[in-house]
Design brief:
The termini are far apart. Helices cover 60% and strands 0% of the residues. With 228 residues, it is an all-alpha fold. It folds into 2 domains: 70 residues; 135 residues. Keywords: Oxidoreductase, Peroxidase. This is Heme peroxidase. One of its GO terms (molecular function) is peroxidase activity.
Length: 228
């Protein structure tokens, strides 16, 4: 193991606690709707807030005889329109948080509608469609550009989280995780290679390590809660 990977390994042991307690990576491999909801609402929110929104959507769809865990973007769009639009969806399922602190910033439910619609316009209706599109450079670039054109998504952070949630293979390292790796390893070596080296040397699951670092960097709990 290289010196840089050793430094990263030591930092992870210091910061992340027992790997056995790392939360399982959040993913919705069969539900693009849930990927979109989680990605749009994740920034600046407590993880319990996003979980409650996801659960309310699940309950809403179950009440309609649907299954949120197999919903694609069209089903998400139908749920927004079925409740009367993004403001009503925000009141009943989401919340009233805007996409940014800028004056007049739209609600996140408005961004949700725009993001889902943009993906459908590109023929990306399901999580499998997203995984397929991500393997083609042109289609991936077009999808990312459309997503980042949605209010509040310009940085690309939520795009990276979206493809992680959809379990796109070979996904690039999240920006926050890459920042942690560069800071702790003290090198410009690609983060993916260092994460892989640190994981293999310690027999850690690479996706679990990536997720634990992401939670640590975003201020979320990085150890599972143990019932009293």
């Amino acid at each position: 193991m290289s010196t840089e990977a050793e430094r990263l390994h030591a930092a992870c042991e210091r910061d992340l606690g027992d790997p056995a307690g790392w939360p399982d990576p959040t993913a919705y491999p069969n539900a693009l709707a849930l990927c979109i909801i989680d990605a749009i609402y994740v920034t600046g929110a407590r993880h319990q807030t996003v979980e409650r929104i996801v659960e309310r959507y699940r309950g809403h769809r179950a009440g309609q005889g649907g299954d949120a865990d197999s919903d694609g973007a069209p089903e998400l769009l139908a749920s927004i329109h079925g409740l009367g639009g993004p403001r009503q969806w925000a009141s009943q399922i989401g919340n009233r948080r805007p996409t940014s602190t800028a004056k007049g910033a739209p609600l996140r439910s408005v961004a949700l509608l725009a993001a889902a619609g943009a993906l459908v316009e590109l023929g990306i209706r399901t999580a499998e469609d997203l995984r397929t599109a991500a393997q083609d450079d042109d289609r991936r670039a077009a999808a990312k550009a459309a997503w980042c054109a949605v209010p509040g998504q310009q940085s690309g952070f939520t795009w990276g989280y979206l493809v992680t949630l959809a379990q796109v293979p070979g996904v690039t390292v999240d920006r926050a995780v890459a920042g942690y790796v560069a800071r702790e390893a003290g090198t410009a070596t690609p983060a993916a290679a260092l994460l892989r080296a640190a994981s293999e040397s310690a027999d850690w699951e690479n996706a679990a390590l990536h997720h634990a670092i992401w939670r640590f960097e975003s201020g979320r709990p990085y150890q599972r809660e143990v019932p009293a």
